[in-house]
Every structure is written in C-alpha cells, then in structure tokens.
Design goal:
Layout: E1 6-7, E2 15-16, H1 17-25, H2 27-35, H3 46-60, E3 72-83, E4 88-98, E5 103-109, H4 119-136, E6 142-147, E7 153-158, H5 161-180, H6 190-194
Parallel strand pairs: 1-3, 2-4, 5-6
Antiparallel strand pairs: 3-4, 4-5, 6-7
Helix pairs in contact: 1-2, 1-4, 1-5, 2-5, 4-5
Length: 203
C-alpha cells in the first residue's frame, strides 16, 4: 500500500521494523531468514493475512477521523519512514499529533486485549517512535495499540527510558547477525518454538 507520507531515502545499510520484531521472537529467526535466505512464507499464516487485511481496512475507513479522547489534533496514515542514522526503516499505521505538542505512533493489532503489553509490541512502538521523532523533530513519549479483536480497545503505552535502549540494541543485534553470519543462541520459549516455521531446521 502506498504511504500517505514518505520521509528520507532508504539508508544504504538498514533493517526494517519487521526484521527487528522477528529477532525479538528469536535471534535464530533472523539467522535462518537473513543469513541462509530461507523464506518464512508468512503469506500462508492466517493471523498475518488477517493482520494485513485489518491494516488495509482501517486505513481506508474514515481517514479523517481524529481520536479526540486522547487529544489528537492531526494524523497521517501509513507513513513510510527511514533513517540512515538509526539504520532503520518501516511503515507506521498512524502518526498522531497530540495537543501537548508531542507525536505518537498508533499500531493496529489483530489480537485480543491483555492486561499487559507484550515486549515485542512495546519495542515495535519504540522503533516507530525513534523514526517519528527524527523525521518530525518532535518529542515522542508514548504510543498506542488498538486491539481489533477486543472491539478496537485502545491502549496507551508510555515509554520508559530503557525502552529506547532495548529498541536500539535490537537493531544493532540484527545487523550484527546479518553481517557476521554467526549462528545465534536460541531464545524462544517452548510454545514459540512449537509455533516457529523453522522448527524443523533448528537444533
């Protein structure tokens, strides 16, 4: 889908936010996909397909709607951002301009609300926040998640100082694995391993 806004040229050496998310799932995911070139075939996964459909639908429906409850004064949808400095690129579902002068990313999730925020979701928002802050030269102190399968429940995610350190480190770790080709240590849980597309290759 074509982005509404596009900032910066794609950096020469960079990763996508999606690649960082895969690393957080398990570093070996990065190794199999990026070093060995074995495709994930995510196009065959139901949740991935539904997530893409939800993103496309949300962007098209009522594009001028502003969430007044959280003091949104302006928004842009499906925004492509890239930064040579951060060595990162990706598309943000919505960039929100808030009344207090800060900006925030908003991400739709084809998931049910839980009384906690998954670490991967927090880091995804932080990576988006880093790109937004650089592109628009404005502070980004929080992000938002919309849980589509819980009647579009909106969850605010305030950022902690260490969150940005974790996000930056994930980018550098992905680059390190890709550039070194070193087989990393496994980090997934038993449940994650059972659900991993590389489970038959991983030892």
């Amino acid at each position: 889908m074509k982005s509404e806004l596009c900032f910066s040229e794609t950096p020469a050496v960079s990763i996508t936010i999606t690649q960082a998310m895969a690393y957080l799932f398990c570093p070996r995911f990065t190794y199999f996909e990026e070093c060995l070139g074995i495709p994930e075939h995510e196009e065959t996964r139901f949740k991935v397909l539904m997530g893409r459909e939800v993103h496309a639908r949300k962007i098209k429906i009522n594009p001028d709607y502003l969430r007044k409850r959280i003091n949104v004064v302006r928004k842009a949808v499906s925004v492509y951002l890239a930064s040579p400095t951060l060595q990162l690129r990706g598309i943000v579902d919505e960039v929100l301009w808030l009344a207090d002068g800060t900006l925030a990313p908003l991400e739709y999730k084809f998931a049910e609300y839980r009384p906690f925020v998954f670490g991967t979701h927090r880091t995804q928002l932080c990576l988006q926040a880093l790109l937004i802050s650089e592109a628009f030269a404005a502070p980004v102190t929080r992000g938002y998640l919309v849980y589509v399968r819980s009647k579009n429940f909106l969850r605010e995610v305030p950022f902690r100082p260490n969150d940005f350190h974790t996000a930056r480190r994930a980018v550098q770790e992905v680059l390190r694995i890709i550039q070194s080709g070193r087989f990393p240590r496994q980090r997934g849980t038993a449940a994650q391993c059972a659900d991993c597309c590389y489970r038959n290759l991983c030892v």
